[in-house]
Amino acid sequence: MKKDFKIQIFNSMGRKKEPLVLREPGRAGLYVCGVTVYDYCHIGHARVMVVFDIIVRYLRACGLEVTYVRNFTDIDDKIIQRASALNIPFQQLTEQFIAAFHADMEALGVGKADVEPRATEHLAEMQAMIASLLAKGLAYPGGGDIFYAVDRFPAYGQLSGKNLAELQSGSRVDVDTHKRNPLDFVLWKKAKPGEPHWPSPWGEGRPGWHIECSAMSGKYLGTAFDIHGGGMDLLFPHHENEIAQSEGSTGQPWVRYWLHNGFVNVLTDSGEREKMSKSLGNFSTIRDLLAHYPGEVVRLFILNSHYRSPLDFSTELLETARHGMDRLYSALAGANKALQATAPDRTATGETVPDREEWGSWATDAAHFFAAMDDDFNTPQAIAVLFDIAKKINRAIPLLEQGQAETGAEIQTGVDLLRHLAAILGLLGDDPDHYFHRQGEEGLADVEIDRLIQQRLDARQARDFPAADRIRQQLQEAGITLQDTKEGTTWRRA
Question: What's the N-to-C CA distance of the chain in angstroms?
Fold first, then answer.
């Protein structure tokens, strides 16, 4: 519907808004750092995935052809440690949590990326890049490892704004290290006894973390592309190191625009903000949230904050998002009822996308929506437009019920527009009656029970029996009794 764009985005490289100018008109390449698959995803992961899902949706709504690449880190110290603790092959662990990731994302309305590369499937590309860095004197061997020499890359610090000399003076010298500089980072790790390893020109080993994104983005998007994104926690050193690797290897500028979403903070009972982290034990997994809230509600909660701002997390704010979804679906339900009562063959389905010349009285609302999204993907303002449209629909319904038949066409257009704009944000994808039926159920909805049972099964297969027991206890407290049989697990409500 919107076949042009005047998008301004905040570029972390330079810390200012800039007009989006693509390398190839009409085509955009986007790479986002994905998850390390050793555990279930939490609300911080959900924010990253929802944010960049929205950005991809909006670019496509503007008529652009987008190639979206989002990776899986499927070999890493944490993966090795978790698999070892569970006494299972690391591949079994990563397959389990990749499947769990996809299930969580589907519940949140996050689509799959066009390409979802795994690190272990791109060792040849990583080794080729490491070889080029060695040939250019930007990398060196040490104790069986290969390190990147940051002081050989003059532009190091350009993204983070960090001064190399200050970083060096403030760094702690590692004990028994083969690094020439404490800031140097590993590209290839020498194999350790009992750990997964692969052959390379430098001996058996495995890749460092930073090299995988440089190699995989280069394979699927080329040596230069438009947008690279991720959480603010990755800006330094991960993204800084990616630049050093990629530009050091090719000798050319790499990414035009860097986008970073803000941190998630937990609001404590006293009203204070704590950064969400596993070390503090104050995080909630996506599955924890989906046991109590529909995916759309969690998605709306995330989008109620601008992607660059900190996201405050609390039950109260989630409840606010739930009430917001109720209001939007109420407008759709009321419109359907009024339209069917006055013209039984007409239902506001939202399947028809009105053209600009058909917006009529809704044109200003549509313009405000696109202006908000053009301004660095300002989802809070865009969502405010959805509520404005819903209010106008609610005000028009009594006029139709009072006999003003011409109001029916206006309501129809308003609902179609509301559905379409909301779809760009990944919202209002359900039927109103079904949505409210789920909201009205006592206790856990069937789909949420099935999701928890699958989560319990995953935990048992991974031999994480304490987690499986916690899930059974959670279901028991919700009045759900489980029965494990040879054919699988059945359940019933108390």
Answer: 50
Tell me the pLDDT of the chain averaged across its residues: 89
Q: 3-class SS at 208?
A: coil
Count of CB atoms within 10 A of residue 477's CB? 8
CA–CA dist 192, 5 (Å, integer) = 52
What pLDDT, on the 0 to 100 scale, is given for residue 442?
A: 45
Q: Please give the Cα distance from 43 to 46 (Å, whole number).
A: 5
- With cut-offs at 50, 70 and 90, classify the pLDDT of residue 237: very high
Contact between residue 206 and residue 7 where contact means Cβ atoms under 8 Å apart:
no
- Reduce the DSSP state of residue 53 to 3 states and report it: helix
Q: Are 411 and 403 in contact (CB under 8 A)?
A: no
Most confident of 184-193, 354-363, 433-442, 478-487: 184-193
Rg of the Cα atoms in the chain:
25
Q: H helices within 343-445, ranges in order? A: 363-374, 379-401, 407-424, 432-440
**Mean pLDDT over residues 241-248, rounded?**
98
Q: What is the DSSP string of 465-486?
A: HHHHHHHHHHHHHTTEEEEEET
Query: Which DSSP symbol is given to 285?
Result: B
Q: What domains does the chain contain, in order, with CATH numbers?
A: 8-261 (3.40.50.620), 315-439 (1.20.120.640), 445-493 (no CATH)
3-state secondary structure of 140: strand
Rounded CA separation 464/457 (Å): 10
| Contact yes or no for 218/189 (Cβ under 8 A) | no
Q: Per residue in 15-70, pLDDT tens?
A: 999 999 999 999 999 999 999 999 999 999 999 999 999 999 999 999 999 999 99
Q: Tokens 């880190």 correspond to what residue?
A: 73
Residue 324: φ, ψ to 5° = -65, -45
Residue 356: CB partners within 8 Å, gap ≥ 6? 1, 363, 366
- Non-local CB neighbours of 128 within 8 Å, separated by 6+ positions: 215
Determine the Cα–Cα distance for residues 145 and 153; give it in Å rounded to an integer: 19
In whole angstroms, give the CA distance from residue 23 to residue 380.
Answer: 29
Phi first, then psi, for residue 70 (nearest 5°) are: -140, 120
Q: Does residue 248 surpass a pLDDT of 90?
A: yes
Which residues are CB-contacts of 187 (< 8 A; sequence separation ≥ 6)?
126, 130, 133, 139, 145, 146, 147, 148, 207, 208, 210, 211, 245
Give me the pLDDT at residue 170, please.
54
Helix pair 209-221, 240-250: axis angle to 10 deg: 50
Q: Which residues pair with 375 in a beta bridge?
A: 8
